[in-house]
Amino acid sequence: MNATVAAAERAVDSGFDCLKVKVGVRGIDADAERLRAVRDAVESGVSLRADANGAWDRETAREALARLAPVDLAYVEQPLPAGDLDGAAALRRADETPDVPIALDESVAAHGVDAVLEARAADAVVLKPMALGGPDRALAAALRALAAGVEPIVTTTVDAVVARTAAVHVAAAIPDVAPCGLATGSLLREDLAADPCPVDAGRVAVPTAPGLAGGAFDDLRTDG
Ligand SMILES: [Mg+2]
Fold first, then answer.
1. pTM exceeding the 0.90 threshold for the entire prediction
2. How far is the centre of ligand 1, averaged over its atoms, from the C-alpha of 107 (Å)?
């Protein structure tokens, strides 16, 4: 628990105002305790998200949402396995389910954003450009989600710098975009080039040069 709180405090100290905590591995009691500890450690203006990566079945998900509701989460991501769109839709509308917004990630990669919107299975969709066929398709999906009243969130597939920069552009092209999961470069041991838009105090400055980032990736060409 302390490690999660310490990591959350470090992130907030360095300028982040939206944090995501992974849940679903330790059991509901431990997750609820951990998230409560993080909630109590950070200011109320810091937004908290939880990501279960499809770990729960329907009954466990209902119980988990009930336990996590008092923590004031922005949403719980992928509470059920990717294939269970009906289950996710039921979690959103069931009278006995607490009002915790549901985001879907793996379900979008597996079924496409249109199936998720059609099933009314999510309050937010997590869009990974490299899993959706590229930045143009990810942006189109984001705009369709917005039109359906569903919040698009852009994140990476822990990409190297080229695809990460493309994800930054996708996020920047979404009107009033919600906090996105773009600060993933530090998860890599090495990268292909210097980052043209590094995260600074929780923010990313979008490159304004032509192309992805002007000539930042020119050295990556493998002509001949
Ligand atoms: Mg996720």
1. yes
2. 10
